[in-house]
Specification:
Number of helices: 0
Structural class: mainly beta
Number of strands: 22
Largest sheet: 9 strands, mixed
Radius of gyration: 17 Å
Mean pLDDT: 92
Order of helices and strands: EEEEEEEEEEEEEEEEEEEEEE
Low-confidence stretches: none
Strand content: 25-35%
Amino acid sequence: MNDVYIHPTAEVSPEAEIGAGTKIWNQAQVREDARIGAGCVISKNVYIDAGAVIGSRVKIQNNVNVYHGVEIEDDVFLGPSMTFTNDRFPRAFNSDFQVSRTLVRRGASIGANAAIRCGVTIGAYAMVGTGSVVTRDVPAHALVVGNPARQIGWVCACGQRLEEGAAVCAACGERPPLPSGTGVHPE
């Protein structure tokens, strides 16, 4: 494990794959067959389940759970205490457990205390607001909030909310690739 920092209180399986420059902080647990890319920050008390896949340059804040079946692409931010699920029909007595795949696309951000139902995809550069409960797919560049989460606008890759009718982001000058009919870019 090149240039990987693992805090002495972290529990990291020798069967986990950890990319160069990744930092794993106190009381984190990384299980067998988990894959974590380069340059990640795995903060205090994070749980990464067996077989979970995390891209490069991902920042995972304190108390986050990333369960089996979750795949996180590069440059994703996971806020404090947000969580994923991986079983749509959980029962303590269920012996026929079925993992549902969840995908978080490149550059997406998920706010503190958000809950992500399994089986959804969060699009590239989408932003999920603090405390939101995501129960269905989130389009790329969408801004969603609430319980259940609903779309209230669009965000640029730089993270700024796009003004209605604007052709480019006022903060960085970029033109995000949004679907037609969004009310952001003129058609």
